[in-house]
Design brief:
single chain; about 500 residues; mainly alpha; two-stranded antiparallel sheet; 17 helices; 2 strands; APC family permease; transmembrane helix; membrane; AA/rel_permease1
Protein backbone atom coordinates (compact mmCIF):
# COMPACT_ATOMS: atom_id res chain seq x y z
CA UNK A 1 0.00 0.00 0.00
CA UNK A 2 1.28 3.44 -0.86
CA UNK A 3 1.80 5.38 2.35
CA UNK A 4 2.92 8.66 0.83
CA UNK A 5 1.14 10.12 -2.19
CA UNK A 6 4.29 11.65 -3.57
CA UNK A 7 6.09 8.31 -3.62
CA UNK A 8 3.79 7.17 -6.39
CA UNK A 9 3.22 8.54 -9.84
CA UNK A 10 1.47 11.94 -9.86
CA UNK A 11 -2.26 11.69 -9.25
CA UNK A 12 -2.15 7.93 -8.49
CA UNK A 13 -3.66 8.90 -5.17
CA UNK A 14 -6.05 11.78 -5.86
CA UNK A 15 -6.56 14.71 -3.52
CA UNK A 16 -9.52 14.45 -1.17
CA UNK A 17 -12.84 15.18 -2.80
CA UNK A 18 -14.36 18.50 -1.83
CA UNK A 19 -17.92 17.37 -2.44
CA UNK A 20 -20.14 15.18 -0.34
CA UNK A 21 -20.16 16.77 3.11
CA UNK A 22 -23.47 18.54 2.51
CA UNK A 23 -22.28 22.15 2.67
CA UNK A 24 -23.77 24.71 0.28
CA UNK A 25 -21.19 25.08 -2.49
CA UNK A 26 -20.66 28.32 -4.39
CA UNK A 27 -22.19 30.51 -1.69
CA UNK A 28 -19.02 32.56 -1.01
CA UNK A 29 -17.18 34.76 -3.50
CA UNK A 30 -13.73 36.35 -3.36
CA UNK A 31 -14.91 39.48 -1.54
CA UNK A 32 -16.74 37.50 1.13
CA UNK A 33 -13.72 35.22 1.62
CA UNK A 34 -11.41 38.23 2.04
CA UNK A 35 -13.89 39.80 4.48
CA UNK A 36 -13.93 36.60 6.52
CA UNK A 37 -10.14 36.43 6.57
CA UNK A 38 -9.84 40.04 7.73
CA UNK A 39 -12.65 39.77 10.26
CA UNK A 40 -11.18 36.68 11.90
CA UNK A 41 -8.03 38.63 12.81
CA UNK A 42 -9.99 41.40 14.60
CA UNK A 43 -7.73 44.13 13.17
CA UNK A 44 -9.05 47.03 15.27
CA UNK A 45 -8.74 45.10 18.52
CA UNK A 46 -5.42 43.47 17.58
CA UNK A 47 -3.61 46.71 16.74
CA UNK A 48 -5.15 48.46 19.75
CA UNK A 49 -3.76 46.01 22.30
CA UNK A 50 -0.47 45.14 20.56
CA UNK A 51 1.01 48.37 19.18
CA UNK A 52 1.74 49.81 22.61
CA UNK A 53 3.49 46.64 23.78
CA UNK A 54 5.64 46.56 20.64
CA UNK A 55 6.54 50.23 21.07
CA UNK A 56 7.61 49.59 24.67
CA UNK A 57 10.12 47.07 23.31
CA UNK A 58 11.49 48.79 20.17
CA UNK A 59 10.20 52.36 20.23
CA UNK A 60 9.81 54.05 16.86
CA UNK A 61 10.80 50.82 15.10
CA UNK A 62 7.35 49.36 15.78
CA UNK A 63 6.46 49.61 12.04
CA UNK A 64 9.63 47.65 11.22
CA UNK A 65 8.56 44.96 13.68
CA UNK A 66 5.11 44.84 12.08
CA UNK A 67 6.74 44.40 8.68
CA UNK A 68 9.15 41.70 9.82
CA UNK A 69 6.41 39.87 11.73
CA UNK A 70 4.46 39.77 8.48
CA UNK A 71 7.21 37.90 6.60
CA UNK A 72 6.64 34.40 8.10
CA UNK A 73 2.89 34.98 7.84
CA UNK A 74 3.16 35.71 4.10
CA UNK A 75 5.44 32.73 3.52
CA UNK A 76 3.01 30.48 5.38
CA UNK A 77 0.13 31.97 3.38
CA UNK A 78 1.79 30.71 0.19
CA UNK A 79 1.81 27.21 1.69
CA UNK A 80 -1.91 27.48 2.48
CA UNK A 81 -2.62 28.66 -1.07
CA UNK A 82 -0.73 25.82 -2.75
CA UNK A 83 -2.15 23.14 -0.48
CA UNK A 84 -5.68 24.45 -0.92
CA UNK A 85 -5.24 24.46 -4.69
CA UNK A 86 -4.34 20.77 -4.50
CA UNK A 87 -6.76 19.75 -1.73
CA UNK A 88 -9.68 22.17 -1.20
CA UNK A 89 -11.05 20.53 1.91
CA UNK A 90 -12.64 22.40 4.83
CA UNK A 91 -10.39 20.35 7.12
CA UNK A 92 -7.39 22.39 5.89
CA UNK A 93 -4.53 21.77 8.38
CA UNK A 94 -5.93 18.42 9.47
CA UNK A 95 -6.14 17.05 5.92
CA UNK A 96 -2.90 18.59 4.69
CA UNK A 97 -0.73 17.52 7.62
CA UNK A 98 -2.28 14.05 7.54
CA UNK A 99 -1.45 13.66 3.85
CA UNK A 100 2.12 14.80 4.42
CA UNK A 101 3.07 13.40 7.84
CA UNK A 102 0.46 10.80 8.70
CA UNK A 103 -2.74 10.56 10.77
CA UNK A 104 -1.23 11.01 14.22
CA UNK A 105 0.43 14.29 13.31
CA UNK A 106 -2.64 15.35 11.37
CA UNK A 107 -5.01 14.64 14.25
CA UNK A 108 -2.79 16.16 16.95
CA UNK A 109 -1.44 19.27 15.23
CA UNK A 110 -3.97 19.87 12.46
CA UNK A 111 -6.96 18.95 14.61
CA UNK A 112 -6.34 19.21 18.35
CA UNK A 113 -3.87 22.14 18.47
CA UNK A 114 -5.89 24.20 16.00
CA UNK A 115 -9.14 23.55 17.89
CA UNK A 116 -7.69 24.39 21.31
CA UNK A 117 -6.18 27.65 20.01
CA UNK A 118 -9.51 28.62 18.47
CA UNK A 119 -11.50 27.80 21.62
CA UNK A 120 -9.19 29.90 23.78
CA UNK A 121 -9.42 32.73 21.26
CA UNK A 122 -13.22 32.49 21.24
CA UNK A 123 -13.36 32.75 25.03
CA UNK A 124 -11.02 35.75 24.96
CA UNK A 125 -12.86 37.51 22.14
CA UNK A 126 -16.22 37.06 23.84
CA UNK A 127 -14.84 38.58 27.05
CA UNK A 128 -13.22 41.48 25.18
CA UNK A 129 -16.37 42.19 23.17
CA UNK A 130 -18.49 42.18 26.32
CA UNK A 131 -16.16 44.46 28.27
CA UNK A 132 -15.90 46.98 25.41
CA UNK A 133 -19.65 46.94 24.84
CA UNK A 134 -20.36 47.71 28.50
CA UNK A 135 -17.77 50.50 28.46
CA UNK A 136 -19.27 51.92 25.25
CA UNK A 137 -22.68 52.00 26.92
CA UNK A 138 -21.18 53.93 29.82
CA UNK A 139 -21.62 51.04 32.26
CA UNK A 140 -18.05 51.24 33.53
CA UNK A 141 -18.79 49.64 36.88
CA UNK A 142 -20.20 46.57 35.12
CA UNK A 143 -17.29 46.56 32.65
CA UNK A 144 -15.01 45.97 35.63
CA UNK A 145 -17.23 43.28 37.12
CA UNK A 146 -16.15 39.76 36.16
CA UNK A 147 -19.61 38.24 36.62
CA UNK A 148 -21.32 40.87 34.46
CA UNK A 149 -18.69 40.65 31.72
CA UNK A 150 -18.80 36.86 31.69
CA UNK A 151 -22.62 36.81 31.53
CA UNK A 152 -22.69 39.23 28.60
CA UNK A 153 -19.86 37.33 26.90
CA UNK A 154 -21.92 34.13 27.06
CA UNK A 155 -24.84 36.00 25.48
CA UNK A 156 -22.55 37.24 22.69
CA UNK A 157 -21.38 33.68 22.09
CA UNK A 158 -25.00 32.54 21.87
CA UNK A 159 -25.79 35.33 19.39
CA UNK A 160 -22.89 34.64 17.01
CA UNK A 161 -23.53 30.89 17.26
CA UNK A 162 -27.12 31.51 16.17
CA UNK A 163 -25.93 33.56 13.19
CA UNK A 164 -23.40 30.91 12.19
CA UNK A 165 -26.07 28.22 12.56
CA UNK A 166 -28.40 30.03 10.15
CA UNK A 167 -25.97 29.81 7.25
CA UNK A 168 -22.71 31.08 5.77
CA UNK A 169 -24.41 33.60 3.49
CA UNK A 170 -26.03 35.33 6.48
CA UNK A 171 -22.74 35.23 8.40
CA UNK A 172 -20.90 36.75 5.41
CA UNK A 173 -23.45 39.56 5.12
CA UNK A 174 -23.03 40.39 8.79
CA UNK A 175 -19.26 40.35 8.37
CA UNK A 176 -19.42 42.92 5.57
CA UNK A 177 -21.07 45.40 7.93
CA UNK A 178 -18.88 44.66 10.94
CA UNK A 179 -15.65 44.77 8.94
CA UNK A 180 -16.60 47.98 7.13
CA UNK A 181 -17.29 49.74 10.43
CA UNK A 182 -13.94 48.87 11.98
CA UNK A 183 -11.89 49.58 8.83
CA UNK A 184 -13.57 52.98 8.37
CA UNK A 185 -12.92 53.76 12.04
CA UNK A 186 -9.22 52.89 11.71
CA UNK A 187 -8.93 54.91 8.51
CA UNK A 188 -10.63 57.90 10.13
CA UNK A 189 -8.36 57.67 13.15
CA UNK A 190 -5.24 57.55 10.98
CA UNK A 191 -6.25 60.46 8.77
CA UNK A 192 -7.16 62.59 11.80
CA UNK A 193 -3.88 61.74 13.55
CA UNK A 194 -1.79 62.76 10.55
CA UNK A 195 -3.81 65.99 10.22
CA UNK A 196 -3.42 67.08 13.85
CA UNK A 197 -1.25 70.12 14.48
CA UNK A 198 2.20 69.11 15.65
CA UNK A 199 2.10 65.60 14.18
CA UNK A 200 5.55 64.55 13.01
CA UNK A 201 6.20 63.62 9.40
CA UNK A 202 6.48 59.82 8.95
CA UNK A 203 10.00 58.56 8.39
CA UNK A 204 11.21 55.56 6.41
CA UNK A 205 13.73 54.98 9.20
CA UNK A 206 10.83 53.57 11.22
CA UNK A 207 10.91 50.62 8.81
CA UNK A 208 14.66 49.98 9.20
CA UNK A 209 15.05 46.23 9.92
CA UNK A 210 18.66 46.77 11.03
CA UNK A 211 17.87 49.34 13.70
CA UNK A 212 16.96 46.96 16.53
CA UNK A 213 19.20 47.05 19.58
CA UNK A 214 20.08 43.38 19.67
CA UNK A 215 18.38 40.09 18.90
CA UNK A 216 16.33 39.98 22.12
CA UNK A 217 14.21 43.08 21.49
CA UNK A 218 13.93 42.15 17.81
CA UNK A 219 12.63 38.64 18.55
CA UNK A 220 10.23 39.82 21.26
CA UNK A 221 8.74 42.53 19.05
CA UNK A 222 8.36 40.24 16.04
CA UNK A 223 6.68 37.56 18.16
CA UNK A 224 4.19 40.13 19.43
CA UNK A 225 3.47 41.16 15.85
CA UNK A 226 3.10 37.55 14.76
CA UNK A 227 0.06 37.21 17.00
CA UNK A 228 -1.85 40.12 15.47
CA UNK A 229 -1.84 38.50 12.02
CA UNK A 230 -3.22 35.19 13.28
CA UNK A 231 -6.66 34.09 12.11
CA UNK A 232 -6.67 34.81 8.38
CA UNK A 233 -6.55 31.05 7.71
CA UNK A 234 -10.17 30.80 8.91
CA UNK A 235 -11.27 31.83 5.42
CA UNK A 236 -9.81 28.62 4.00
CA UNK A 237 -12.16 26.49 6.12
CA UNK A 238 -15.05 27.66 3.93
CA UNK A 239 -13.26 26.61 0.73
CA UNK A 240 -15.87 23.97 -0.08
CA UNK A 241 -18.54 26.67 0.01
CA UNK A 242 -16.46 29.10 -2.07
CA UNK A 243 -16.81 29.60 -5.81
CA UNK A 244 -13.86 28.02 -7.60
CA UNK A 245 -12.68 26.37 -4.39
CA UNK A 246 -9.24 25.52 -5.74
CA UNK A 247 -8.38 29.12 -6.68
CA UNK A 248 -10.45 31.75 -4.84
CA UNK A 249 -9.53 30.83 -1.22
CA UNK A 250 -5.84 30.97 -2.12
CA UNK A 251 -6.27 34.39 -3.66
CA UNK A 252 -8.22 35.56 -0.61
CA UNK A 253 -5.44 34.35 1.70
CA UNK A 254 -2.82 36.53 0.00
CA UNK A 255 -5.13 39.53 -0.38
CA UNK A 256 -6.29 39.49 3.25
CA UNK A 257 -2.77 39.23 4.68
CA UNK A 258 -1.50 42.09 2.52
CA UNK A 259 -4.49 44.27 3.47
CA UNK A 260 -3.78 43.53 7.13
CA UNK A 261 -0.18 44.64 6.70
CA UNK A 262 -1.26 47.88 5.06
CA UNK A 263 -3.85 48.58 7.75
CA UNK A 264 -1.44 47.95 10.60
CA UNK A 265 1.39 50.00 9.09
CA UNK A 266 -0.94 52.93 8.35
CA UNK A 267 -2.30 52.90 11.92
CA UNK A 268 1.16 52.55 13.47
CA UNK A 269 2.64 55.39 11.40
CA UNK A 270 -0.32 57.61 12.27
CA UNK A 271 -0.12 56.85 16.00
CA UNK A 272 3.64 57.42 16.19
CA UNK A 273 3.39 60.60 14.13
CA UNK A 274 0.80 62.05 16.47
CA UNK A 275 1.90 60.77 19.90
CA UNK A 276 5.57 59.88 19.50
CA UNK A 277 7.18 57.13 21.53
CA UNK A 278 7.79 59.02 24.75
CA UNK A 279 7.14 57.51 28.15
CA UNK A 280 4.77 60.18 29.42
CA UNK A 281 1.36 61.59 28.48
CA UNK A 282 -0.10 60.09 25.33
CA UNK A 283 3.30 58.77 24.18
CA UNK A 284 3.25 55.20 22.94
CA UNK A 285 6.13 54.42 25.28
CA UNK A 286 3.97 55.19 28.31
CA UNK A 287 3.20 51.85 30.03
CA UNK A 288 -0.16 53.24 31.10
CA UNK A 289 -1.21 53.38 27.43
CA UNK A 290 0.16 50.02 26.32
CA UNK A 291 -2.97 48.01 27.11
CA UNK A 292 -5.09 49.87 24.57
CA UNK A 293 -3.41 52.50 22.42
CA UNK A 294 -6.58 53.46 20.57
CA UNK A 295 -8.45 54.13 23.81
CA UNK A 296 -5.63 56.43 24.93
CA UNK A 297 -5.20 58.30 21.65
CA UNK A 298 -8.77 58.48 20.39
CA UNK A 299 -9.99 61.38 22.61
CA UNK A 300 -7.13 63.81 21.75
CA UNK A 301 -7.18 62.76 18.07
CA UNK A 302 -10.91 62.50 17.38
CA UNK A 303 -12.63 64.24 20.26
CA UNK A 304 -14.84 62.63 22.86
CA UNK A 305 -17.83 61.84 20.62
CA UNK A 306 -15.90 60.20 17.79
CA UNK A 307 -13.66 58.43 20.28
CA UNK A 308 -16.77 56.50 21.35
CA UNK A 309 -17.17 55.38 17.75
CA UNK A 310 -13.63 54.01 17.74
CA UNK A 311 -14.36 52.25 21.01
CA UNK A 312 -17.39 50.66 19.37
CA UNK A 313 -15.20 49.63 16.43
CA UNK A 314 -12.88 47.68 18.76
CA UNK A 315 -15.92 45.96 20.28
CA UNK A 316 -17.25 45.13 16.82
CA UNK A 317 -13.82 43.85 15.84
CA UNK A 318 -13.85 41.29 18.66
CA UNK A 319 -17.44 40.17 17.92
CA UNK A 320 -16.69 39.88 14.21
CA UNK A 321 -13.67 37.67 14.88
CA UNK A 322 -15.78 35.63 17.28
CA UNK A 323 -18.34 34.95 14.56
CA UNK A 324 -15.66 33.80 12.12
CA UNK A 325 -14.12 31.55 14.77
CA UNK A 326 -17.44 29.76 15.28
CA UNK A 327 -17.84 29.32 11.51
CA UNK A 328 -14.32 27.97 10.98
CA UNK A 329 -14.01 25.67 14.01
CA UNK A 330 -17.11 23.61 13.27
CA UNK A 331 -16.09 23.12 9.62
CA UNK A 332 -12.67 21.83 10.54
CA UNK A 333 -14.23 19.22 12.78
CA UNK A 334 -16.86 18.44 10.16
CA UNK A 335 -14.00 17.35 7.92
CA UNK A 336 -12.42 15.27 10.68
CA UNK A 337 -15.74 13.49 11.25
CA UNK A 338 -16.34 13.03 7.52
CA UNK A 339 -12.93 11.36 7.21
CA UNK A 340 -13.58 9.08 10.17
CA UNK A 341 -11.46 10.84 12.83
CA UNK A 342 -14.26 12.16 15.08
CA UNK A 343 -17.81 11.07 16.02
CA UNK A 344 -20.40 11.23 13.25
CA UNK A 345 -22.35 13.92 15.09
CA UNK A 346 -19.79 16.52 13.98
CA UNK A 347 -20.61 15.69 10.35
CA UNK A 348 -24.32 16.36 10.84
CA UNK A 349 -25.58 19.02 8.39
CA UNK A 350 -28.74 21.07 8.88
CA UNK A 351 -31.05 20.16 5.96
CA UNK A 352 -32.13 23.74 5.25
CA UNK A 353 -29.25 25.94 6.43
CA UNK A 354 -26.55 23.58 5.06
CA UNK A 355 -24.35 24.24 8.08
CA UNK A 356 -22.72 21.80 10.55
CA UNK A 357 -25.62 21.89 13.02
CA UNK A 358 -24.18 19.90 15.91
CA UNK A 359 -20.66 21.23 15.48
CA UNK A 360 -21.76 24.88 15.45
CA UNK A 361 -23.74 24.54 18.68
CA UNK A 362 -21.05 22.39 20.27
CA UNK A 363 -18.26 24.91 19.73
CA UNK A 364 -20.35 27.86 20.80
CA UNK A 365 -21.23 26.00 24.01
CA UNK A 366 -17.66 24.73 24.53
CA UNK A 367 -16.25 28.25 24.28
CA UNK A 368 -18.85 29.48 26.78
CA UNK A 369 -18.00 26.71 29.25
CA UNK A 370 -14.27 27.38 28.86
CA UNK A 371 -14.81 31.10 29.44
CA UNK A 372 -16.85 30.50 32.59
CA UNK A 373 -14.32 28.03 33.98
CA UNK A 374 -11.32 30.29 33.35
CA UNK A 375 -13.16 33.32 34.72
CA UNK A 376 -14.12 31.45 37.90
CA UNK A 377 -10.60 30.13 38.41
CA UNK A 378 -8.93 33.52 37.95
CA UNK A 379 -8.91 36.49 35.61
CA UNK A 380 -5.12 36.13 35.56
CA UNK A 381 -5.49 32.50 34.49
CA UNK A 382 -7.64 33.58 31.55
CA UNK A 383 -5.00 36.16 30.62
CA UNK A 384 -2.28 33.49 30.59
CA UNK A 385 -4.48 31.18 28.50
CA UNK A 386 -4.77 33.92 25.90
CA UNK A 387 -1.02 34.50 25.86
CA UNK A 388 -0.39 30.75 25.48
CA UNK A 389 -2.08 30.69 22.08
CA UNK A 390 1.16 32.09 20.62
CA UNK A 391 2.77 28.67 21.06
CA UNK A 392 -0.19 26.89 19.48
CA UNK A 393 -0.28 29.28 16.52
CA UNK A 394 3.42 28.88 15.76
CA UNK A 395 3.06 25.09 16.11
CA UNK A 396 0.31 24.47 13.57
CA UNK A 397 1.31 27.24 11.16
CA UNK A 398 4.86 25.89 11.08
CA UNK A 399 3.76 22.29 10.62
CA UNK A 400 1.40 23.26 7.79
CA UNK A 401 4.15 25.14 5.96
CA UNK A 402 6.50 22.17 6.26
CA UNK A 403 3.69 19.83 5.16
CA UNK A 404 3.50 21.83 1.93
CA UNK A 405 7.20 21.27 1.23
CA UNK A 406 7.07 17.57 2.03
CA UNK A 407 3.87 16.84 0.14
CA UNK A 408 5.08 18.56 -3.02
CA UNK A 409 8.72 17.50 -2.77
CA UNK A 410 8.54 15.38 -5.94
CA UNK A 411 7.21 18.37 -7.89
CA UNK A 412 9.81 20.94 -6.88
CA UNK A 413 11.91 20.25 -9.98
CA UNK A 414 8.98 20.70 -12.35
CA UNK A 415 9.36 24.45 -12.70
CA UNK A 416 10.93 27.49 -11.02
CA UNK A 417 7.43 28.42 -9.81
CA UNK A 418 6.96 25.10 -8.04
CA UNK A 419 10.40 25.31 -6.49
CA UNK A 420 9.75 28.81 -5.16
CA UNK A 421 6.07 28.67 -4.11
CA UNK A 422 5.83 25.04 -3.03
CA UNK A 423 9.34 24.65 -1.69
CA UNK A 424 11.58 27.56 -0.79
CA UNK A 425 9.03 30.08 0.53
CA UNK A 426 6.96 27.60 2.60
CA UNK A 427 10.18 26.07 3.97
CA UNK A 428 11.42 29.45 5.13
CA UNK A 429 8.01 30.21 6.61
CA UNK A 430 7.89 26.88 8.44
CA UNK A 431 11.37 27.27 9.88
CA UNK A 432 10.55 30.80 11.03
CA UNK A 433 7.39 29.59 12.71
CA UNK A 434 9.21 26.77 14.49
CA UNK A 435 11.90 29.24 15.57
CA UNK A 436 9.11 31.45 16.93
CA UNK A 437 7.74 28.42 18.78
CA UNK A 438 11.09 27.68 20.41
CA UNK A 439 11.71 31.32 21.28
CA UNK A 440 8.20 31.70 22.69
CA UNK A 441 8.56 28.55 24.80
CA UNK A 442 11.90 29.81 26.13
CA UNK A 443 10.45 33.18 27.10
CA UNK A 444 7.22 31.75 28.51
CA UNK A 445 9.06 29.31 30.78
CA UNK A 446 10.06 32.21 33.02
CA UNK A 447 7.76 32.64 36.05
CA UNK A 448 7.75 36.36 35.33
CA UNK A 449 6.09 35.85 31.95
CA UNK A 450 2.36 36.47 32.13
CA UNK A 451 0.28 36.56 35.29
CA UNK A 452 0.74 33.19 37.00
CA UNK A 453 3.45 30.65 37.75
CA UNK A 454 3.68 27.18 39.28
CA UNK A 455 6.80 25.91 41.07
CA UNK A 456 8.97 28.43 39.26
CA UNK A 457 7.54 27.74 35.79
CA UNK A 458 5.48 30.32 33.94
CA UNK A 459 1.77 29.64 33.76
CA UNK A 460 1.72 30.65 30.08
CA UNK A 461 4.29 27.95 29.30
CA UNK A 462 2.37 25.33 31.25
CA UNK A 463 -0.89 26.19 29.51
CA UNK A 464 0.64 26.30 26.03
CA UNK A 465 2.85 23.23 26.21
CA UNK A 466 0.29 21.53 28.45
CA UNK A 467 -2.44 21.99 25.84
CA UNK A 468 -0.29 20.20 23.28
CA UNK A 469 0.78 17.50 25.74
CA UNK A 470 -2.81 16.76 26.81
CA UNK A 471 -3.62 16.18 23.16
CA UNK A 472 -1.40 13.09 23.11
CA UNK A 473 -3.40 10.94 25.56
CA UNK A 474 -6.63 12.28 24.08
CA UNK A 475 -5.44 11.16 20.65
CA UNK A 476 -4.51 7.72 21.99
CA UNK A 477 -8.00 7.34 23.44
CA UNK A 478 -9.61 8.50 20.19
CA UNK A 479 -7.39 6.08 18.29
CA UNK A 480 -9.04 3.10 19.98
CA UNK A 481 -12.43 4.12 18.57
CA UNK A 482 -11.45 5.36 15.11
CA UNK A 483 -9.05 2.62 14.14
CA UNK A 484 -9.55 2.91 10.41
CA UNK A 485 -8.36 6.50 10.27
CA UNK A 486 -5.24 5.80 12.30
CA UNK A 487 -4.58 2.41 10.63
CA UNK A 488 -4.87 3.40 6.98
CA UNK A 489 -2.75 6.48 7.38
CA UNK A 490 -2.50 9.14 4.71
CA UNK A 491 -4.93 7.44 2.36
CA UNK A 492 -7.82 7.72 4.80
CA UNK A 493 -8.46 11.39 4.02
CA UNK A 494 -8.77 10.75 0.27
CA UNK A 495 -12.28 9.32 0.49
CA UNK A 496 -15.11 10.40 2.76
CA UNK A 497 -16.23 7.79 5.27
CA UNK A 498 -19.36 9.77 6.11
CA UNK A 499 -21.32 11.48 3.35
CA UNK A 500 -24.58 13.30 3.06
CA UNK A 501 -27.58 11.02 2.78
Amino acid sequence: MTTNPTDAEPRTLPPPAAAGKGLRGGSVGLLAAVAMGLSSVAPAYSIAVTLGLVTLVVGHLAPAALLLGFVPILLTAFAFRELNREMPDCGTNFVWITRAFGPMNGWLVGGWVTTVATLIAMAALAQVGAAYLLAFLGLHSLAGNTTAVTALAVLLLAAVTAVAYRGLEIAASVQYVLLALQMVALLGFGVAAFARHGAAAPSLSWLNPLGFGGFGPFAEAVLLCLFIYWGWDALVTVNEETRDSGRVPGQAVIISTVVLLGTYLFTAFAAISFAGTGGTGVGLGNPANSGDILASLAPPVLGTALAKVLQLAVCISAVSALLTSVVSSCRGNLSMAAHGALPQAFARIHPRNRTPSFGTVFFGAAAAVLLVILSVVSGAFLGDAILSTGLLIACYYGMTALACVWYFRKQLRNSPRDLLLKGILPLLGGLMMLAAFVRSAHDMYSPDYGYTSFHGIGGVFLLGVGSIAVGVPVMLIVRTRFRRFFREGRTSVVELTITED
